[in-house]
Amino acid sequence: MADSNSIWVLADDRAGNRAQVLGVADVLGLPYDVKGISYGPWARLPNVVLGGSTMGLDKKSRIGLSAPWPSLVIAAGRRTAPVALAIKRKSAGQARLVQIMNPGMATDQFDLIAVPSHDPPIAGDNVISVTGAPHGLTEAVLASARDQWMPTLAELPAPRIAVMVGGSTRRREFTHAMARELGVRASEMALAAGGSLMITTSRRTGAASSALVDVLDCPSRLYQWGDEGDNPYLGFLACADAVVVSGDSVSMCSEACAVPVPVQIFAPPELITIKHARCHATLYDGCYAGPFTGVLVQGRHIPLNAAETIAGAIKERFLS
User: Fold this and answer.
1) How many Å apart are CA 142 and CA 160, to the nearest integer?
2) pTM to 2 decimals?
3) Rounded to an integer, what distance in angstroms lies between the CA atom of residue 23 and that of residue 35?
4) Per-residue model confidence as pLDDT tens digits over 105-137
5) DSSP string of 48-99?
């Protein structure tokens, strides 16, 4: 049977998926358990073959999913969908399933599906559309980060421009030439405005990070992936007067738009997939961001967080 007060968050090995489910759970504001899951070779099978089963998980993950079953499951991505359905079956249908993104199987088996507006639409009364990817960067979280980090960043001249660098994806390479272009143009933007840069790179930036660092010629604070100390990613965003973000990650672009300052997306055509381009277009259309021009612009926008939309739908449909 299901525990009427229990919420499970299925957190797999994809950082973007983890950020989305944890973001929704945090915004929901209720206690929850994180169920870390890893996959075995059977996870490559289509979901229509896997059905509602844990067959795609490794042994340790399967053992970690046991009664008492939850009343609510929050999951993201195609590979988590069969697992969520297995939990619902084992709870005798009592567990409600909230799935972020297309589950890749019959949608009427889920209680709520949140589909990003840049993905192909899905029909159904249980489907809602959201802009961007959900995350946990609420106003309260950002305010706390600002209080923590601003004392160490106050010496940087304003405007302080956060530069959030992703990198190569499974299909596209973040080249040295791209990194160099981003470094040169961001430096020129900061110098023209009399400001500074706050730069973070990611694991995916790889060796291209050196090409970006070599061309910086303005006041800056730099954190490269693997540096000692706390990663200031959240602090840089919270303290930014403007943001430049590489367009290779839907989650990172969405997090950049959580702050109400001008956001520009660096999107070289050779780096950006069709899906990424559709995401950028929705952010541009919603006035949350614009293409990277190398010129600092003024203005503010409403902070973006799809997690608030999803959490609101959960409360209205299942918790009211």
Assistant:
1) 16
2) 0.91
3) 15
4) 999 999 999 999 999 999 999 999 999 999 999
5) HHH-S-STTB-HHHHHT--SSBPSEEEEESGGGHHHHHHHHHHTTT-SEEEE
CA distance 155 to 292: 26
Tokens of 277: 């381009």
| Contact by Cβ (8 Å): 262, 297 | yes
- Cβ partners under 8 Å of residue 35, min gap 6: 8, 9, 10, 11, 64, 65
Give the whole-angstrom CA distance, residue 319 versus residue 313.
9
**In 3-state terms, what secondary structure has residue 226?**
coil
Tell me the H-state helices in 154-269: 176-193, 208-214, 233-238, 250-256
> Which residue type, as a one-letter code, is found at position 63?
I
Rg (CA), the chain: 20
C-alpha to C-alpha distance for 184 and 272, rounded to whole angstroms:
20
- Long-range pairs, 107-111, Cβ under 8 A, ≥24: 109/52, 109/85, 110/81, 110/84, 110/85, 111/317, 111/318
CB proximity list for 116: less than 8 A, separation 6 or greater: 101, 129, 130, 131, 132, 133, 250, 279, 282, 306
- pLDDT per residue over 13-58, tens digit each? 888 899 999 999 999 999 999 999 999 999 999 998 999 999 999 9
Q: Cα–Cα distances in Å, from 86 out to 10, 70, 168, 227, 309?
A: 12, 12, 34, 41, 26
